[in-house]
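Form 12-C: Joint structure prediction
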Amino acid sequence: MGSHGIRDRVAIVGMGCTPFGEHWDKSTADLLIDAAQGAMASAGMGRDDIDAYWLGTMGSGLSGVTLSRALRVTKPVTRVENFCATGSEALRNACYAVASGAYDVAMAIGVEKLKDSGFSGLVSPPQPSDGTAVEMTAPAAFSYLAPAYAKRYGLDNDEMRDVLTRIAWKNHQNGAHNPRAQFRKEVAKETIGNAPLIAGSLGVFDCSGVSDGSAAAIVVRAEDAYRYTDSPLYVKGLSFVAGDATGVVDDTYDYTTFPEVVLSAQDAYAQAGVTDPRAQIAMAEVHDCFTPTELVLMEDLGFAERGFGWKEVLAGTFDLRGDLPVNPDGGLKAFGHPIGASGLRMMFECWLQLRGEAPEDRRITSTAHGKTLGLTHNLGGRPGECVSFVSIVGSEPSA
Amino acid sequence: MAEAAPTPGVLAYGAYIPTARLQRSARGAVLGTSGGKGTRAVASYDEDTTSIGVEAARLALRGRGVVPDQLIFATASPAYLDKTNATAIHAALSLPRSALAFDAGGAVRSGVGAVFSALRSNGPTLVVLSDLRGGVPGSADEVAAGDAAAALVVGTGGPEAPVLAEVLGQASATAEFLDRWRLPGQAHPGTWEERFGEHAYLPLADEAFAAALKDAELTPDQVDHLIVAGTHGRACRAWATRSGAAAEAVVNDRTAAIGNPGTAQPWVLLADVLDRAGGGEVIVVMVLADGASALVLRTTDALAAGRSAVSVAAQIAGGDDTLAYGAFLTWKGSLDRESPRRPDPTPPAAPPSLRTSAWKYAFEGSRCTACATRHMPPARVCRRCHEVDQMVPEPMADVPAAVSTFTIDRLAFTPSPPLIGAVVDFDGGGRTNIELTDCDPAWVAIGRRVELTFRRTLTAGGIHNYSWKARPLRSSTDPGQAS
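Section 2 - Result
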């Protein structure tokens, strides 16, 4: 028994990512075609080079046919769903398929078409139920974190507001320099802090963008990577944990942490040989679905000591040019959150940044100090009842 | 000589007055017509006659060692037709499966009929009397009416649950005439001209009163508490003054504070009297509804130790009279409001609702026999020790809890935004995620004490969804004040 990982056995050799946003003129199939074309062009491949596909979508289509029909391919296509970590789950399984030797080339592709429903926020397809669950929205469920964190670490309402505002402000700053992002404008802190409330203390600027989009990655065996690119991205660790969902029923859980994130981070770090994430990791793309989530993640991922995440946020540690840039592409907050695509969108930013392809005005500086590792963190569900994915990727094979 | 049959009486009682009050003057600003003085009780948007009936019955049964073997639910405003409403109350109270539960519905008079029938039954019978009353916006009925429920357990008693008030006599006078009526499907009743009703009711009341007192071998001057209740306020007031009972015996009908809750009114007022009466006092309940019925009771010395968990007076004192007239109209279904841009709510499905009936209706969790961990909802696999199928039922509906964290959800669908969500931790262990009700969003904070309340959370696709919410904890003396 054990989690061994597949460190440096596979590499990403091409990626594509559509702009995220309100694509009134594009269907789910259009978005899939655009991301797949982008990834294949990036790897210098054609459709015949792909042996198998993993499609991640939460609700924009059922079965592999959603992709095979769009691309007009007749190949193995596995459709996966794992809440908001769906895109990462597609990547994880594609990586395992290649590492196992079953396929030479696999594509992981994620997509979501959220804007066509006309609803505010996320909507899950209803299951027949006994009617006892509280029909609470995602921002409400995540807003549980804010009063719990503030109470535990002694922040008053204004201090907590400043911390959350700082996170949204930073991600909007980063998104402002990203042509693919849904929101490409810097937002003043006053605007963020005074925004209309959605749930609890969370205003509209504390919530990620509801959007349409797709992203894709092509995975090959590490030893084959140089056939396709001079600068592959090596997969160092992949970890996924589905929590036992006891937080919502266990009175010892205090809503200031995601135990699932802690476990998946530990596993991924062990696989990748990371012993000091704060010092070793060049950048992180984390699941900032709502601002308090990013705050808690900084501690769960080991980027800040327990109870000190808020101070590090205010100190700018996670800014674009800070010690450990977090969400340099704008994150879910500014880039938008088409569910099935988000995990692969995070990987797309690692692809750009670690390989030096990010545009000058939002290029991280930590890589200049010899750091080569990137982290993506993708969360699904809600506090107390969630799934968590952590990956570590690097621009260099291990010595 | 054979022993006399034991005298039946009231073994337990309780009343539930919803928290919200509409100030009658509040509609003036909207309609330009005065509604008069005082307030009326208003069932919340998430309450109906079934749910408030459950609340009244919980207050009646709490701490009383009696298990009813029959349940009669009487209301003129049933949540369902064709389908029995009493079965939801039966489920919420975890009554024995063998107990017969049925509705006596349609007319206000069915309430007194249910009580009289119960007194003729063998085993202890729980009678739940519940009503939501109103009228066309702007009408006198709209503000004169009220919403409330009462519950009585009647029977011959025993050492566990002695008789609190024994029945000395009862009598009725029945007549067919038009006082107040409503066609099926109509929201509001029609009424005949007021003076005619007085003409029709007064002789009927005289007859029933005389016959009941004769049955009890009493005279009017021996009545300590005279409750006169019914559909016709003017007739009730007129008869009270000519009954022959002492003026000071006439019981305050509480309409100034809560309005007239129809089917429940006589029994809410009886609960109010039982809350404060001493032993050996004579109470007459006179009900004027399509005839007259009189019930003569005498309190026993057991009453002092058997009163309801929360008094009527305390619930009246604890009312919240800040309800806006617009919210009142919305709750009563008279004002369509915009919904959030969210999917329409879905009704509960029948099979899962039956499978989880003990959880859904009675808030019964489970407890692991291996490690004593509580589970809400009940679970088969223990989250702590992972033993499988080592659970026993754990009734949790009467266990108070405290807010662990909370939110105000302004996006979620609810008939009365915003939705207040909270994670609550129960005294003695266990946690659940639950919606709060009957509270101002500003009241919610970590550590606030709450108690459970049975509610109709929504109606979708013609199906009501009943479930439990949490509300600020009431103490028995000061129900409206959050602890």
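Section 3 - Comments
Chain A touches chain B at residues 118-121, 123, 126, 128-137, 139-141, 143-145, 147-148, 151, 197-200, 244, 246, 248-251, 253-255, 384 (CB under 8 Å). Chain A has two domains: 10-116+212-227, 138-197+233-394.
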